[in-house]
């Protein structure tokens, strides 16, 4: 339900666009959740052993056998986009990174300036990013009637670009921006033109753009953001924010409901490239496992759903999903 790492929150009924200044925020919002990549852990009633992970040569035929003849819902995480050049900041080989929190964004003007300056540079990269074989395999499986849809934790829109039709962007997308004061929406494309006009020459001054490290949410790591001018809402002058669910925010209830409906359309669940570290994704695995339907997890490294998985395949998503599509949706 929530990406927050701090104290528990109320029900996820708020739309992002309804958020207000933290001074007047509802008391159910925690004050300044600590920024950390460590998720809030769930206390299990018991501690079942993890399902052992198989390598691709054994795992693939087992996955094909398990999924054949079933309608499959898919949950994807950052791991499916790493082959498109978008780093997975939770992956086993990733450096520790502190994701932005909602409270930081709304309460600190300097933080916001830095955020938008980096986003202004990073945007160019994410915009150029292309789907990889894993995205294309899932689109192929959907067109063949095997996959019923994709619930993604990624904000990169690569499933849409690959041709998947039924996609729920659980955490929003980088392509939309919303005013926190009046709810007015603009596309990130439109905002890019305004930021460019407000900050002529900024990108060039940052230097070798090609060497800038990009995070999954179009955040580029650059040294100096001094002097960057942030764009405000052109309707009310309010605070603009990417329509992405950040740490400290809840996924809108309506979106959660659509994701559950998608998952309940299926006979099985396939998790691809997610460690399921955040509750917003893990809840679906728990839900499907409790219903007695099979759960297949394809991921490099351990996941929070390992004890609930029917089958675990320890392999990259591009090769595994392609092989699955070749077996279940031959051309
Ligand atoms: Zn506004």
TrEMBL record:
One of its GO terms (cellular component) is cytoplasm. This is NAD-dependent protein deacetylase. Pfam families: SIR2. Binds 1 zinc ion per subunit. It comes from the Bacteria. GO terms for molecular function: histone deacetylase activity, NAD-dependent; NAD+ binding; zinc ion binding. The active site is at 171 (proton acceptor). Residues 1-55 are annotated as: Disordered. It is an enzyme of class 2 (transferase). Its cofactor is Zn(2+). Keywords: Cytoplasm, Metal-binding, NAD, Transferase, Zinc.
């Amino acid at each position: 339900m929530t990406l927050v790492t701090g104290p528990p929150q109320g029900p996820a009924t708020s739309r992002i666009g309804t958020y207000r200044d933290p001074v007047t925020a509802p008391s159910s919002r925690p004050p300044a959740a600590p920024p950390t990549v460590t998720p809030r852990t769930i206390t299990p009633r018991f501690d079942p052993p993890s399902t052992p992970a198989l390598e691709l040569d054994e795992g693939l035929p087992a996955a094909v056998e398990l999924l054949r003849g079933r309608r499959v819902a898919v949950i994807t995480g950052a791991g499916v986009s790493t082959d498109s050049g978008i780093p997975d900041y939770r992956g086993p080989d990733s450096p520790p990174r502190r994701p932005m929190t909602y409270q930081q964004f709304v309460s600190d003007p300097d933080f916001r300036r830095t955020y938008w300056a980096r986003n202004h540079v990073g945007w160019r990269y994410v915009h150029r990013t292309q789907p990889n074989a894993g995205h294309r395999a899932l689109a192929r499986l959907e067109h063949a009637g095997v996959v019923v849809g994709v619930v993604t934790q990624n904000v990169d829109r690569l499933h849409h670009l690959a041709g998947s039709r039924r996609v729920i962007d659980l955490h929003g997308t980088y392509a939309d921006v919303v005013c926190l004061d009046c709810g007015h929406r603009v596309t990130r494309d439109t905002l890019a033109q305004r930021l460019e006009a407000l900050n002529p020459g900024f990108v060039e001054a940052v230097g070798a753009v090609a060497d800038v490290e990009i995070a999954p949410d179009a955040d580029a790591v650059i040294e100096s953001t001094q002097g960057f001018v942030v764009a405000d809402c052109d309707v009310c002058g309010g605070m603009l924010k990417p329509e992405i669910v950040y740490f400290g925010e809840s996924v809108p209830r309506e979106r959660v409901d659509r994701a559950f409906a998608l998952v309940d359309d299926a006979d099985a669940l396939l998790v691809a490239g997610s460690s399921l570290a955040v509750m917003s994704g893990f809840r679906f695995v728990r839900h499907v496992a409790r219903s007695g339907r099979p759960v297949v997890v394809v991921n490099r490294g351990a996941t929070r759903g390992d004890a609930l998985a029917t089958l675990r395949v320890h392999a990259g998503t591009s090769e595994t999903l392609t092989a699955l599509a070749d077996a279940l949706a031959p051309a």
